[in-house]
Input
Amino acid sequence: VHFAFEALGSMKTIDDAYSILRPTGEAIIVGVPNLREKYELPVANLFAEKELRGSVYGSSRPKRDLPMFVDWYMDGELKLDEMITKRIRLEDVNQAFEEMSRGEGARSVIMFD
Output
């Protein structure tokens, strides 16, 4: 593949993402593994010109990007409300985690009064 995205933060899935790349492909690591772990790379892979890159918040620049996101939301171009599965109170957070572990309520938002 040309691009692979890893979002779990597992060393196995990082390795899988890198391994499936074609020469000159790029693996973007979004998930955060244990930061003390080391990733071993066979030297031969360097000659395939594959790239392994980490991404923090999608490489965004908050001072530039947040006002743009607010404008998009206010103009109706960024449909955040449609992404929310459920609005909950803080005292219901444990139930929300249980639901999430069952594959329900993936995008709950905690509402503070």
Remarks:
- The chain has three helices and five strands.
- Strands lie at 3-6, 26-29, 51-54, 86-89, 108-111.
